[in-house]
Amino acid sequence: MQAFSRFNSLGIWEGVGKRLDWYRRVSVNSMPARYLIAHYTDSGLSGYDEAGDIDSSLDAYKRATLSFLDLKEAIQDGQSIDTLEKPEYSLLDLAKDITHRMLRSCIFCRWRCNVDRAEGKKLGTCMLTDESRVSSFFHHTGEELVFRGTHGSGTIFFTSCNMRCLFCQNADISRDRFNGIPYSGEDVARMIYLLKNEGCHNVNYVGGEPSIHLHTIVDSIWHLANTGFDLEPSADKMQSILRVKNDYFPYTEDRRYSDYRGLFNIPVLFNTNMFLSDEAMTILRPLVDIWLPDFKFGPSGCAVRLSRTPWYYETVTSNLETVNGWGDDIMIRHLIMPNHVECCTKPVLKWISDKMPDVPVNIMAQYRPVAFADPSSPRFDRRASDITRRPYERELSESWEYAENLGLNFRSATFDED
Q1: With 0-12 CB in 10 A as exposed, 13-18 as middle and 19+ as buried, what is 157?
Q2: Is the pLDDT of residue 201 over 70?
Q3: Shortest CA distance to 209 belongs to which of 200, 217, 201, 199?
């Protein structure tokens, strides 16, 4: 398709290197998304043991993930997905069952609240039950060029978060758990079906924070693989999901955007604060085609003061090292904040340089004092007194010069050099 040719010909691909090559190939349907490979990977089990131990289930999941990686490599080497048969109980089936089991003693993120969200009598840090609300979905044309491309990033905004950033630019949805409309995983899959057939280059799970909606996200991915093109919404379902579609003009639908050898295909982009549990990371490994994590704070106490988030630095760096060790496609975002170049920006960039120097980094200049960091707001929190302005030009220049001296791969992502 002409749209694929334009996307493939963007000059930015040379700048971001090979770390995003898998994502690019899935976007233009020259490779199947990971969830399709997981759909054809045998879990090694005949079904899920509800009475079994969650750790044993995760051990089985890790073993099956090794089989997934072998199958992915075979497909990259030329094996056709047409030769595969769906096993009786696939790795994707197991992912769906484990996440719902985890929901009953929630350990989706690092807080490990262990509350029964299915019962809903006690709430954890994210303040959620098993209900997932979507505030909006649309063609996001403000993401990095590799994600927005020519037709936008297919963004799904979930509500609520497991962090409490005083400066959150999405505070209306991250702080209000009743914002948005409740949708099932199948409903979310229909949103994705519509976005991809309208030309979006990916499904961009974001929020708030997507990891706290892991059960709904995995459900939606399961439906993409198992229901596929039958997800086309009925009139009633279309009316329901269009309540939160936030595009300004209509897009033409074309099934060729999503068709990989007769299978519905779209790369999964996980847009996260990276404050995930080890178990969530394990579940997501065979499902996520590209990671887009924030790396906000250095190792000082800024995360606790500005986000009420202990264990931040050690959790995020551990998860980043895990993804890097897997060799997965990844781009890191870091937001330059006023008065935080020395305590946050420089330590973050130095860590990336030391641990994963080839990874593309977007060193962002978009900070503005909003929500609890806005001194003109009645919600203003004095703990945010040092971030009540935009960064000075010298702070931005110093940060980018520091990244340049470290040899980081940041220019293409930061300045959309094409």
Answers
A1: buried
A2: yes
A3: 217
